[in-house]
Amino acid sequence: MFRELRKELEIEVERPSARLPEVPTEEEIRAFYQQVWQARKFTDMVLIKTLFYTGVRVSELVNIRLQEVDLERCQIRICLGKGGKDRMVPFPHAFRELLGLHIQQMQQKQACYLFESVRKHKYSDRGVRRMLERYAVAAGITRSLSPHKWRHFLFTWLKAQGVDDALIQPYSGHESRQSLEIYSRLSLGEAQPVYEQTMGTFPIQ
């Protein structure tokens, strides 16, 4: 009723501007990964890089199966992501050797998932969150940074490098009503070359 009345009277209601998500700084990302590197825990290193390079959600990360990783194409299939949709996400070519070595080790252990415990249980969402929190504390990061904020760093960083939103969306798992028509014409095949070139200067190598 009020909407129709405002329309009839030509009254415009000022809407609050969308709040920008809080993301880590490049300095925090570097300090964080420095702690990961110094810990010399190979699986942690691979997990953190997978998370940061692909921008997948923690809930998606822990459900990645070994057969869903395509080392040749440098892509990972995310099955039944947010909204129950499958999508492909890229990772840098430079990460392929390290990820391949991890996969080989997991295959020797007859694992099903990309990240499993010694008891052959897939990593839990809570366990990954605790890992991120532990390294953040070790890096001296005092403010609260949820996994969503770490994930969002990749997309805001790509945006800052001049990568178009329409090239980021196909693998980010985000949908924009305004951009849906544009996004539907794009594929990962078009986005990946830009991603690969840009990731050469990513804070974590």
Which structural traits does this protein have?
three-stranded antiparallel beta sheet, mainly alpha, single chain, 10 helices
Main sheet characteristics: 3 strands, antiparallel
- Strand-residue fraction? under 5%
Helix segment tally: 10
Spatial order of the strands forming the largest sheet: 1-2-3
Strand segment count = 3
Unreliable stretches covering 5 or more consecutive residues: 176-186
What form results from the Cα inertia axes?
globular
> What is the CA–CA distance across the termini?
56 Å
Helix content: 40-55%
Walk me through the topology.
Elements: H1 2-9, H2 26-39, H3 42-54, H4 58-61, E1 69-70, E2 75-78, E3 87-90, H5 96-108, H6 125-138, H7 147-160, H8 165-172, H9 180-183, H10 188-198
Antiparallel strand pairs: 1-2, 2-3
Helix pairs in contact: 3-7, 8-10
Q: Could you please describe the fold and organization of this structure?
A:
With 205 residues, this protein is mainly α. It has 10 helices and 3 strands. A 3-stranded antiparallel beta sheet has the order 1-2-3. A hairpin with an 8-residue loop joins strand 2 and strand 3. Helix 3 crosses helix 7. The longest helix has 14 residues. It is globular, with a radius of gyration of 19 Å. About 5% of the residues have low confidence.
